[in-house]
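As a representative case, we now present a protein record of this kind.
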Amino acid sequence: MKEMKDFDQIARRQGGLKQQLTAGQMSMLAIGGAIGTGLFLGSAYAIQMAGPSVLLSYFIGGVVALLLMGCLAEMTSEHPTPGSFGDYAEFYISPLFGFLVRYSYWSCVVLAVGTEVTAIGMYMQFWFPGTPIWPWALLFSAAMNVIHLPAAAGIFNFIVLVAALSAMNSQLYITTRMMFSLSRAGQAPAALGHVSQRGIPVSALAMSCIGIVVSIVLSLVYPEKSFASMMSISVYGACFTWLMIFVTHLFFRRQHRKTHLKFRMWGFPYTTLAGAGLMAALLISTAFTEFFKMTLWFGIPFTLLLVVVYFLYSRRQPTPIRVETTGAE
């Protein structure tokens, strides 16, 4: 039986970030992440592949998301920590799985930032046809000063463009906090766990912009397939993380058989097992889908590499940064 004080030590590592965002601002970040490229450009690819049956796919995806939120709500009500599912996997399964979950999720969202950048370049081609995608990754603000919006089509393109930018902002926020958490766990360079006087992890933010660089490279090398390539490699981290959240919940419940929990996931263990099974099936199905053929080709070697890095890095026995301040975000 693990002691809860040990989890408190994991949670205290996250100290140092300033809690300045209101509940409304956090809600807007969440909405921004939800209505980005996946809702507009991503839906176009989904409809192209599945046709009308895409509605069934979205329904199943919605069920999985609902089950996932139930598992996370149960664990979060017991442990409201900024490290979230990375901390839960570390404590309830093992430090290795905490490492894998954090880096998988970080890589997913970092690459998703690159996906948004690629989408922005594609949207900008509506007004500037024939121009390469990559200049818009850095010159969006300057371009907007000379744009003339052509009626309804231009207005709609502007809306989806803003949605992509909003999603990118949300994703940068998430990846920065995850890299900060990795550093504080002693699983990334200590410099990435430092914060500015304003409580901002600037180094972690800079590191999390790597997805923009990847998107620019792919736009130069594979201009016609850059979006599909970014989507297919970024989706692995998301699927793996969601799968591990369900697995972590199984370990969580085993630890809390006799605990009076503030919230209990309905239908346990069948709902948790169903969620894990659906996510495993989704990962396997990517091998048979042309659009996502790179998912497992990227994901399996990436996970194996993370395992090797973890054991090499753990030999150094790094000391996690422990900050006793409260109010971390």
Observations:
- Residues 141-150, 319-329 have pLDDT under 50 and may be disordered.
- The CA atoms of residues 86 and 322 lie 17 Å apart.
- The chain has one domain: 23-314.
- The two ends are 29 Å apart (CA to CA).
